[in-house]
## 1
Amino acid sequence: MSNTSLIYKISPQSAWRQAEASGVFTGAPVDIADGFIHFSTAEQTAETAAKHFAGVEDLVLVAINTDALADDLKWEVSRGGALFPHLYADLPMDAVAWVRAMPLGEDGQHQIPWDES
C-alpha cells in the first residue's frame, strides 16, 4: 500500500454501478437512515462483511482515499468501542482508489480482495 490512507465500503455491485453512472454515491439504505455513509478500516472489513453481508453474493469492495474527503470524514466510536470512519456527505467518485469483486468462498465467507495489483 502507498502512503495514502484508505478506508473501505462494501456494496452490492448493482448499487455501486448505479453510483458510478450517476457520478456520486449517496449511500446504502442504512447510510441514508443513519445520516452518514458507513466505512470500515482494512482491519474491520472482514468483520463488517460477516456481520452485515453474511451470505450475500455479488458484492464489491470499494477502496476510498481519505485525503479526498476532507473534514466530512469523522472517526466515531461504534462496534466494540472501535473507531469507525463515517462520511457526512455524498461520496464523490474521484475519491475512489479501486473497486474489486468480493466473492463468497467455499467456506461461505467473503474473500477480501486486498492484493490484486
## 2
Amino acid sequence: MFGYVTVQKDELLVKEFNQYKSVYCGLCRKLGREYGILSRFILSYDCTFYAVLLLALRGECPGYEKKICRCNPLKKCTYIKNGEEALSKASALSVVSVYFKIIDNIADTKGVKRIIYKALKPIFKRWSKKAKNKYEYIYQAVREMSESQFRCEENPNCHLDMAAEPTAKMLSTVLSKEGRNSSERLVLSNLGYHLGRWIYLIDAADDFDDDLKKGSFNPFLVYKEKENLREYFSQVLNNDLAQTYNSWNLLSTSLYSGIIDNILLKGLAAKQNSVLFKEEKRNGD
C-alpha cells in the first residue's frame, strides 16, 4: 500500500470528514496499542480506507469519543469507540505491508538507505510476526505478493498486466475474506482486485520519470515513446477506477457510504490527476 487512497476533503460533509478522521485517529491509537509507539509512523490513508470499508460492511455505528491525542497531548481527538476488529486488521495490514516493503528496499537500494532499512528490519519483523499470529491470511497474501512481484520484475517479458497482478491478487484475497456469503465475497474480490491494480499502476506512473532516469524497472517504460503518454496512463487507470466503483455499488451498505463514495469517485480521481498532470499544474495549465 502506497498512500494514494485518500478522501477529497472539500467534497465531504463536515460530519463525514469528522467520521473519517475518527477512524484515522482510531487506527493510529490501535497501531500504538498493538505494535508500540513507533508503529504510529506507518499510519496510512490506504489502511484507513480498509478500516472504513470493514466498518461499513459490519453496518453498526461504532460510536465516538473525545480523548487526548496520542501524538500531541495538547489537543483532543475524536476516536471511534468500537470497531476493534476492523482497526486490528487494518493495523496488521499496515505493519506486514511495510515489513515486506523494507525487504524489497534492502534488495533494491545501496549505501546509507540500505543500512537504515537493515536496521529497521528486525523491528518490523517482530511486528509482522505478531500480525501473522492474529491474521495469517493477511500475512500470507502480502508475502505472496512480494515474492510474485520480485519474480515479475526479474522476468524480461514482464508486461503491464503481469506487473500489476500481484498487488491486485493480494488485495482481492484480503477483501474477499470479509464477505458474508459467496456473492459478497465475489464482489469484494473484484473490488480489491481492481483497486489493487490501480494502486500499483498509479505508483508506477508516479515513479515513471525517476525510473526512466535511473533505468529501474517500471511497467510503463515500454510505452515511453508513445504519443500522449499521460493520457494513455489515464485511460488504463480509469478502467480500474470504474471497475472498483461498480463493485462497490453492488454492496448493500449504508454506514460510511458517503465517505467511500467520496474516496472512490473523487479522492482517487483527484490523486490520479495530481500524479499524471503535475507538470501542467506547475505550469499553470
## 3
Amino acid sequence: MVAPMRVVAVVVTYNRRELLLECLDAIARQSAPVADVLVVDNASTDGTPEALRGRAGVTCVRLERNGGGAEGFHHGIRIALERESDWLWLMDDDCVPAPDALERLLASPRAADPAAAVLAPVVKDPGGRLLPINRGHVRPRWFFAPLVAATAEEQAHGAETEIGFSSFVGPLLRTDAARAAGLPMREMFIRFEDVEYLQRLGPERRMWLVGASEIVHKDPQPVAGADLRAMWGDYAQRIPFAQQWKRLYGFRNLIYTARAGGYLSAPQALSQFAVQALRTLLFHERRARTLVLLAAYGLDGWRGRFRNVPPARWGEVATARRPLAFVTREAMVYDSAPATPASSRAPAPSPATPRG
C-alpha cells in the first residue's frame, strides 16, 4: 500500500486576520488533508496571533518586522524544510482553495513524475473570473513584461499544461525541489520573488498547470484578463506617491529576475523603463521625484541591489531633500544568515539544515 503524500502548507500573512482565517478554514476543509499548516506572521498588529492561539494543526511563527511577502516565504519555507514532507503548499492569506484543490493536484498524473517540481491550480477571483497573470510562460519581449499569461484554453478544467512561471497563489512545490532551489530572496520584499525562486529549479524540474484544481485569490485590485483592455486598466491606474514603493520594488524585481533568468537584455530593460516612465508622466503625482526613483530602482535591479524602505516610512521619501540618500540610509538591513523568528510554536528543528 502506497503511503499518502505528506503536505505542509505555508501561509504568509500581514494584518489581514479575517482573510487569513477564511484561508485556514478552506485548508481545513480539504478532501485530502494536509499534515501541518505553518502560518508566518509578518509582525501583524490586528490580533492575528491571538486569533490563531490554540487552533488545531496550525503553527504560528511571528517575525520581528514586516519584511514583505518575500521575507515571509523565505522563513516559512526554511522552517517547513525542517519538517518531514513530500510537498509544500504555498499561498498568501487572501487565498481560498476549493475543497478538492489539493486532492486534484495530488491526483494529477504529473504528481507521480519526479521531474514535476510544481503543480499549480487555476486562479480565479471570487466571481469566478480567471486571473491568468498568476501562471504562464517566459518570453523575451520588448516594452512588455517577459511573462506571458496562460491562455483560457490552457486553464480549461481538464487541461494540464507545462508553464514557465507561477505566483505563490497555491502552487504545490515538491520538497526535494525546494531543497535544491534554496530559499526565496527576502531582499526582494514583494512581487516577483516567486518567479525568481521557481526559475531556479531549472528546465529539468518542470512546472505544470492543473486545470482540474482551482483556488480563489481575493486580490483587492486583480487584473482579470490578459488582453490589451485589462492591461491598459492596470497600466492607467493612478497610484498615490505614498504607495509607489510597491510599483518601484516590483519594477526592480522584474528587471533582476529577468536578467538572472537570461531573458532580458540591456536594450530590453531600457524599453521596460521607457514604458514605466511614460506611465509616471501620464498618471502619477510627484512625477519628477518618481522618475528619479524609477531610474534608480531599475538600475538596482540590473545590478542586483535591494534598497527597501519600510512601507510605513515611504511617505517620508516625498519630502526628503535628497530622496535617494534617504532611501539608502533608511533601507532595511539583511544579515548574511537567516534571522530567527521572534517566536514560534513549531517543533524543535531537526539536525538537517536546508540549503539557502
## 4
Amino acid sequence: MRNRKHMVAVGGICTTAIFRVPHIAPPPAKILATQHREVVDGMAISAACAFQKLGGQAHVWGRVGDDAEGDVMRRALSAEGLDTQGLFTVKGSRSSHATVIVDGLGQRLVVPFHDPQVDTSPHWLPLDTLANIDLLHCDVRWVDGAHAALLAARARGIPTMVDGDVAPRAVLAQLMPLADYAVFSDAGLLAYTELPDVPQALLQVAQQHSSHVGASCGAEGYYWVENGRIEHVAAPQVDVVDTLAAGDVFHGALALAILEGQSMRSAARFACVAASLKCTQFGGRLGCPTRAEVEAELQKPS
C-alpha cells in the first residue's frame, strides 16, 4: 500500500528484559518482580514500531549480532509488520541486550550491554532505497550510521528527524544540525546547550537551525520554536505505570502526523496523547496505543 507513509528508522537494536518491581532499593538487595516482558527495541526501533502501529509503514536499518539472537530480532520485528531487510548481521559480533527495572511510579533503571568490538561502519546501508521513503528518523546510538543516512537523505530532499536524547555533546553537535526536525528530550536538550531552562535552550538551538526545533518533556508535554516564539502542547494526565519508550513512541507518532499533513500543534498533541497512553501500560514500546485509542482520547474534552 503506497498510500501509507513510509519511514526509515536508523539506530541501535537490542533484546530487552523488563521487570516491574514495587521500588528500586539500593544494593545489596533482592526484590521480587511482579511483571516481566521481553521485547526487541532500541530508541529508533521503538519509534518505528509506534509509526507502524499508528498507521504507517516502517523500515528499520540497524546492526544485529552474528548469533541466534540476531535471527530472533528479525523475526520479532517482521511479525509486527516492519520491513527488516535493512538489518545487517555484523560478522563475529554479539547482539545487544538490556535489562530494565521499572518501579511502582513508572520510572526505570536501564542496564544495556553492547558488544564493544562491533564494527561501526555504515558501508552496507541500502541508501538507494531512500527514493521510496517519506522521512528518515535516526537516534544517536549509532553515530556513523545516522550520519551517513542523514547526509544521503538530505541530498535527496527527504525530510529528516533526529531523536536528541542524552549523548556526548560532540555526537549531538554532529547529528542535530542535519535534522529538519530536531526533536530533543528535555534532558538531551539541556545537556546539548548546557543551559538550565528548556525554552531558553530551544531558542538558542533555533538560532542555529533553519528548521523545526522542539523538546519532549514527559508529563509537561511538548515545547517547540515557531516564528521565533515558544509554543507548547500539554500532555494529558494519566496514571503512569511504565515510562519506558514513551519518548520513542512520541517520535514515531510525531513523524507520522507530520507526514499526514497535520499542523505542528495538531501533530504535537497527537504525539503527546500517544506517548501518554503508552505510559499507562507495562512493557516498554509494547504499550504503544492503537490509532483508534489515540483518536478516542483526542475526542475527549480538554
